[in-house]
Amino acid sequence: MSLTIGLTGGIASGKSTVSGMLQSLGLSVIDADVIAREVVEIGEEAYKEIVVTFGEDILLPNRTINRQKLGGLIFHNQFLREELNKIVHPAVRKRMIQQKEKLFKQGKDIVFLDIPLLFESKLTYLVDKTLLVYVKPEIQLKRLMLRNNLTEKEALARISSQMPIDDKVSLADAVLDNNGTFDMTKSQLLSLLNKWGIL
Q1: pLDDT tens-digit profile of 136-195?
Q2: Helix (H/G/I), strand (E/B), else coil: 20
Q3: What is the set of domains in the chain, with CATH numbers?
Q4: What DSSP designation does 57 have?
Q5: Closest to 176 (Cα-Cα) out of 142, 135, 147
Q6: Which of 16, 56, 177, 187 has the fewest CB atoms within 10 Å distance of its CB?
């Protein structure tokens, strides 16, 4: 029996930490953020479409996409954000599905799909179960400001571009409370994986 689990959370909620825990347990994790970077590399279809849509101004001298410049454009403009998502999301989905099928063919029973915007992008149809990494909004804000060296206003703009983390709780099959220490989160994760018959 093959099982696909969607791992999600808000920005700076600690999802990458949980993803690392899963990988350290020998479980397979396909990371949407990693794939999103791959599909916009020079020569990829999505790269060509982005340059056509946003112009050559968003390129660095070496012709790679200036992620900071593009990010600055889309964070404050919903129309442009949607245009970019229309290009990147289908390319990411396609590659994630290919990688998942490949892992199942190699004999893996369980694959985690690490998708930050799992609920926003209505991608729950790709998974059998959903696991949310949760932090209180005020901790999320503090962590994001610290991690990305952002002002409160910049951090709030990024957080508000996603569904409020509290709204995601009722949508998830399971929730990991990541307000505490690394070890507290890990022990919750281990007991959940046991409950789901994964460990």
Answers
A1: 999 999 999 999 999 999 999 889 888 999 999 999 999 999 999 999 999 999 999 999
A2: helix
A3: 3-194 (3.40.50.300)
A4: G
A5: 135
A6: 56
